[in-house]
Input
Amino acid sequence: LRRIVELYRTNPIAKDIVAKIHRLAEKLRARLGDEPVKIMDFCGTHEWTITHFGLRSLMPSNVELVAGPGCPVCITPAYYIDVAIKLALDGITVYTYGDAYKLPGSAHRGSGKPRSLAEARAAGGSIEVVYSVVDAVKRARETGKESVFLAVGFETTAPATASAVARRMAPRNLTFINVHRLTPPIMRHVFEVHKKRIPIRGVIAPGHVSTITGAKAWKFVPEEYGIPTVVAGFEPIDVLLAILEILRQLVAGEAKLVNEYTRAVTWEGNTAAQRAINECCEVVDAAWRGLGFVPKSGLAFRDKYAEYDALRQYGIPELTPERFSYDLPPGCRCAEVTLGLAKPTDCPHFLRGCTPANPYGPCMVSSEGTCAVWARYGGGG
Ligand code: SF4
Output
């Protein structure tokens, strides 16, 4: 495994690819003039690779790498954090992934109310950080206590939640706040937003999500939007190859879907995981933090699994478009960062009142959040 990783980090290979990228970018400059060639990554780990390895600094001046909505914690609506905090303070044990532990809800700083599950725990709430839904199931069985799992994530974590519910592995004392979201619909939403501005000309499709959905999930991007798309792995050379392929297609006037990450991603994806999701959940319109409702972008438990739905079990209303209100703290620009319309450094709070140790907005919480990545490694290139 180490040999494979080293191969994808080899300097001479990277230099060769970067030189080719520069040659292709020159051809595009002749065609597009000063307009930047915007390439969006749709996965927080790709943004990590780009930033951690300084790939932006290797790009030609007319190629702009833009982070997209690739962090599931960042886009989890504040409403569900508020619900989890309330339940924890009511004495129900809340299990959460570590990534979501510090995620702020809707309470303002200095209001005296807990803003996150971390603060709720300090205020006496019963909260445990777990690595997976399997841990939550195990802990709920061991303790026998009334418990709730805050189930956030994209297609990558949804199958584990779905399996626990559909196979009825979860004990009766464990229910779920289901905040799973789907990535293809948000990609459509992003394209529509960017259409009215400088368009996105290439997409680095998410590698982890694609292991579940299969590369086929992205064929609509070149077919309907005419945007070259590459499913890529997470080593620097994976990402550079994806950029090279996108530029090659742009120069050739093509728009195709290419799977660079064949060592992990197939065309069909993980069909067993897809079946588990379909068995357990239906696709619904769902809210994204700071953005509002996006059609058919969320998963909700089917009625036959209603007993696992924490909101239904505790009589808490589901978030609806009427109930949704703008849920970012004042001045936080996470909505624009999530859509690739602003950089973290455009935000007045960045590394001032908002740091990884003390996050003010949601994009600074998770290790996959664009602001957190830029804060740790510097993203400007
Ligand atoms: Fe939001 Fe903090 Fe990022 Fe600003 S720096 S956009 S407040 S997360």
Remarks:
- Residues 332-334, 337, 344, 347, 349-350, 354, 360-361, 363-364, 371 surround iron/sulfur cluster (CB under 6 Å).
- The chain has a mean pLDDT of 95.
